[in-house]
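Our collaborator T.R. sent over the components below with a one-line note: 'Predict the complex.' Nothing else. No constraints on interfaces, no templates requested, no preferences about which chain binds where. So this is a plain run: every listed entity goes in together, and whatever single assembly comes back becomes the starting point for the next discussion.
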Amino acid sequence: MTTIKIPTPLRAYTGGNAEITVQGATVGAALDDLLRQHPDLKAQIYEGDRLRNFVNVFIGDEDVRYRDGMDTDISASDNLRIIPSIAGGAEHIADRQPMERIAPEDVTLSHDEISRYSRHLIMPEVGIQGQRKLKAASVLLIGTGGLGSPLALYLAAAGIGRIGLVDYDVVDETNLQRQVIHYTSDVGKLKLDSAAAKMSDINPYLVIDKHNVPLTSENALDILKDYDVIIDGTDNFPTRYLVNDACVLLGKPNVYGSIFRFEGQLSVFDAKRGPCYRCLFPEPPPPGLVPSCAEGGVLGILPGTIGTLQATEAIKLILGIGKPLIGRMVLYDALEMTFDTIKLRKNPECPVCGEHPTIHELIDYEQFCGVPAHDRSDYKVKSAEQGIKSITVHDLKARMDAGDQPIILDVRDPHEWEISAIDGSLRIPKGQVVVRAAEIPRDHEVIVHCKTGIRSRDSIILLQEQGFTNLVNLKGGINAWAREIDPSQPTY
Amino acid sequence: MNVEITSQLQRTIFGWLQKSYPNEGGGFLLGKRDADHLTISEVRPITNVFAAEEQFHRYAMTPIDWARLEDEADAAGLALVGYYHSHPDSPAVPSEYDRVYALPFFCYLITSVQHGQAAECRAWQLTEDRAQFLELALSVSP
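Returned assembly:
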């Protein structure tokens, strides 16, 4: 014997009783018994022989939809409750700003669209109402690279009405290993143009906004304000903090995904309902500690997984179904093939979303993180650049030709030596330069290189702290050497 | 059916709905109801805890909020008697959307907020056959 609690307006149909005792082994059976006892309830809570979609049945504090629906087993100690959703509530996105917006119920779907989305429409959790919500929604993708590719493809396919893209970059061959929205024939094109062309081909009903600019403190609020959901697919810390703060200030949810080598992270930061990025990571890592994809590498397939999961969360937010990852983070390990979920807490002292916020406007994020956000940035890593001498690959070659035998130190990792190398160089990976400093001459100039010049610069900083004064950085690294001096070697 | 609300409570509702403009605002009405009278004695907004000065926000009301509020009302000897919400820049008349989502024996107080100002407030109840809303007489006491 279980009890079902009846919502106040419907107690008129149960003789004024708030709780009715029912029999049944499943939720469906219990409801049948309820309607046997009080048949007039049926017309109010059922449409045909299914519950009206705004009528929720809870077992304890869990909606039975997320268990087995009508087949959910119930035990004697369970309490059921019928609870209506409220119109204008969580399902209704009301946003009437300059970008022409319409409410989901005013969206029309043509016969072709109905046919196109039929696999959505036949699911009660989506239905025509849900598809209208998708079409009424606007989503902003920041970045059209590794994470942005699956996001753009799947959100276009799902029938989102409007997608904004923020990217200033051009398609490069090294992108093609993972940025599956770009093809070989797109190399050299603007990523925005390449991505938009594929998205329109998947879904001609989609409206696409192209923002061909780097996202900065000057333009972020303006660009983000017209969208319902923001999806962060960026690859650098200054932009992550910028996007987070802008989303908190604007009250927008931020679907976060990040990848590193074989691992990924996923969450939804909605400061009104849970933590923001800063609650977890109040400070950026020290500059140079966390390498970019170019420096640290990434398994190409990895952003495909995380980006698709980000698209899933965005669609759940728009449809208002399921449990979005607010207050939770999924940790994915591709090698182990594990998905772990951890709970995240909102930080009451968070400077941007806490109880006494100190950040009310966007700051200089490059200065905050100590690194430039992108390669068109004017930000110079000031303290690091001081006191570092450098040499170009041409000058190095000229000295070698003149009979000089410069000492060259290669600080790359062993697996990179097989790709390209300068003969006769001393090889000490960056992670070991300090412990093996004794192997590096101090009394003769040493030219330090890595792949592109960043790790070598960082190595020089570390060694200068050990008292070295004879180190020179090879600008552009071995890639510049291979491009401009020795084309028999590949770049990577 | 006569719906009674004090002018102070109505002003409170208007204040909240004007603040939500241009977005919709909404919340619950608590009070007492019998065959001929419905008296509203308390109002509870559905606002997100973190709403603050934000212009754009969505509702975070979940069925759990309804349950909690209903339990509080039941315990206090009051009842959940209705729901108030705004129609930004449109009349205080229930829409088809409102009808599909409504329940009978519940007072729907709709306020038309025109350009940020509460302009009109009318009370409605869904007929038992769910076909339409009938307007209820609304009296605002000083």
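Summary for T.R.: The interface with chain A takes residues 22-24, 26, 46, 48-51, 54-64, 66-67, 70, 73-74, 79-81, 83, 85, 88, 95-98, 100-106, 128-130 of chain B (CB under 8 Å).
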